[in-house]
Design the sequence.
């Protein structure tokens, strides 16, 4: 085979794979992921031992590769011996990823494409509630089985879902309204502290907040109230940023919002009644995976409805040209106020969830590093897009966990990726794309078929 022929084949492989997997609806991909997770639960440990891995990979094998690379770097830097046997873990992790995930997902999605398209076509004629419940139920079942295999997976999944909600709430202001706000970790801190004050102060004996005022509680009743209380408090705090936004834009609003973040952080550091710099611990273990999944689902649905409503169109008008929007009778002050209140409310909800997942909070958790993380998620995923916020939050969260063994190098690799995205896709990976659940669940046209 000549070099030209070989290059043609190499270029043709992705296209051939794309044609093979074309026509698979969302239902088919969800069934493929479910099959892969069931395969891992059945043979994951055995396959890992067969491949010479110390244990079943927890993050698709990427974390295993990162650990080997970290060991090599440490050996070179410290001039110590390196065990060459560890190098076998890299191809073993890739084989594990292919056998457990890639092959089952592709096989089930392709072989079941016709049946999945028929089912999607039938559900497309029904009320939106039924097909949405089927798809969301399959997604939750898959995530539940995947997370149940490891406590590390469970905590990672919980924090990733919270990151999705936080990123969406910031995208309302920085994406749909076109401002640059740095205040979101402050809103998150208010929600975390106020929801913790509600649950720990009322239902837990605590050294900082004193004895419980109520001896018992029904978590499925009181926890939603605690989250809503934290969200409302965050919305009230957002007025300190929203009102100055009437007169300022761009760099000036960024400075005001950053000052708000420092004020909130300093306030909680010096409020000894809320633990000061030590923070608050002992939050009830009420943030189970089903609770977080439902709350984040409600958040996505609510924010998507908001940004596609008349209020969302008003935010887009303010982003494009505020003076022109005012001339077209858009109440720009009301639009800005609403955006900050809604964004802060869901950021407060995210803070309340985080407090009850980690079961400990302190002011240092809501500083500049948290701001950098959420800004990276928004701009990496894409502005003005619910899809983009989900992609950005999931990508940065999982990538940060997968590269954790690399320590300082992690904060070189991720920024380099952000730089490349900003150069080649300045608005993010999936920007300015509406989230239409009905459209996403529609059947797909298979190769060779007419629509």
Sequence:
């Amino acid at each position: 085979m000549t070099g030209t022929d070989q290059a043609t084949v190499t270029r043709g492989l992705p296209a051939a794979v794309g044609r093979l997997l074309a026509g698979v609806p969302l239902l088919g991909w969800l069934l493929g992921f479910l099959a892969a997770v069931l395969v891992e639960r059945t043979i994951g440990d055995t396959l890992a031992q067969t491949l010479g891995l110390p244990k079943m990979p927890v993050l698709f094998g990427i974390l295993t590769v990162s650990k080997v690379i970290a060991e090599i770097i440490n050996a070179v830097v410290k001039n110590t011996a390196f065990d060459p046997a560890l190098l076998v873990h890299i191809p073993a992790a890739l084989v594990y990823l292919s056998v457990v995930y890639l092959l089952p997902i592709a096989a089930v999605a392709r072989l079941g494409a016709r049946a999945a398209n028929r089912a999607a076509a039938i559900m497309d004629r029904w009320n939106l509630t039924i097909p949405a419940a089927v798809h969301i139920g399959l997604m939750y079942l898959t995530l539940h089985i995947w997370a149940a295999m490891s406590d590390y997976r469970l905590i990672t999944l919980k924090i990733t879902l919270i990151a999705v909600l936080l990123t969406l709430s910031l995208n309302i202001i920085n994406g749909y309204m076109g401002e640059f706000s740095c205040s979101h970790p402050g809103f998150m801190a208010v929600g975390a502290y106020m929801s913790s004050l509600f649950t720990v102060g009322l239902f837990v004996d605590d050294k900082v907040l004193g004895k419980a005022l109520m001896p018992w509680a029904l978590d499925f009743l009181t926890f939603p109230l605690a989250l809503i209380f934290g969200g409302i408090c965050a919305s009230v705090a957002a007025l300190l940023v929203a009102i100055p936004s009437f007169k300022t834009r761009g760099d000036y609003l960024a400075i005001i919002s950053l000052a708000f973040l420092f004020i909130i952080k300093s306030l909680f550091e010096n409020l000894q009644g809320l633990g000061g710099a030590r923070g608050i611990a002992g939050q009830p273990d009420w943030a189970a995976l089903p609770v977080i999944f439902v709350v984040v689902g409600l958040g996505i649905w609510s924010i998507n409805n908001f940004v596609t409503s008349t209020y969302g169109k008003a935010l887009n008008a303010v982003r494009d040209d505020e003076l022109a929007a005012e001339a077209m009778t858009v109440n720009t002050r009301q639009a800005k106020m609403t955006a900050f209140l809604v964004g802060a409310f869901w950021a407060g909800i995210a803070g309340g969830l985080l407090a009850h997942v980690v079961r400990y909070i302190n002011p240092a958790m809501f500083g500049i590093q948290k701001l950098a993380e959420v800004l990276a998620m928004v701009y990496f995923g894409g502005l003005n897009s619910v899809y983009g916020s989900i992609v950005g939050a999931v990508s940065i969260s999982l990538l940060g966990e997968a590269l954790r063994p690399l320590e300082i190098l992690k904060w070189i690799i991720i920024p380099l990726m952000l730089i490349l995205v900003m150069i080649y896709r300045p608005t993010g990976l999936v920007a300015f794309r509406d989230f239409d659940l009905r459209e996403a669940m529609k059947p797909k046209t298979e190769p060779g078929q007419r629509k």
